[in-house]
Amino acid sequence: MSEQAHVHETHPEIVKRLKRADGHLKSIIEMIEAGRPCLDIAQQLHAVEKAVCQAKRTLIQDHLDHCLEDVVGPLARDQRRSIDEFKEITKYL
């Protein structure tokens, strides 16, 4: 089963963010191997974790904004309430 390319406007920014996090993670490994202080390492790990979480959040919100809308199609305002609330709550992921 072949899949069509599934690209959204935010994907290049997500890739850029993840590549930056990947490089940062490699430097953290070097920090550990060099015996750097645990506080420094923990701070850098926290920064990478936040970058990956933000990439995930952006991907999910973009998916909901585009893919969900395509599936559901136009709805009356009262019917959209649940979908809009669902999209809003994902901001807290």
UniProtKB/TrEMBL annotation:
Belongs to the FrmR/RcnR family. GO terms for molecular function: DNA binding; metal ion binding. Pfam families: Trns_repr_metal (PF02583). InterPro entries: Metal_Tscrpt_repr (IPR003735), Metal_Tscrpt_repr_sf (IPR038390). One of its GO terms (biological process) is negative regulation of DNA-templated transcription. This is Metal-sensing transcriptional repressor. Gene3D superfamilies: Metal-sensitive repressor, helix protomer. It comes from Hankyongella ginsenosidimutans.
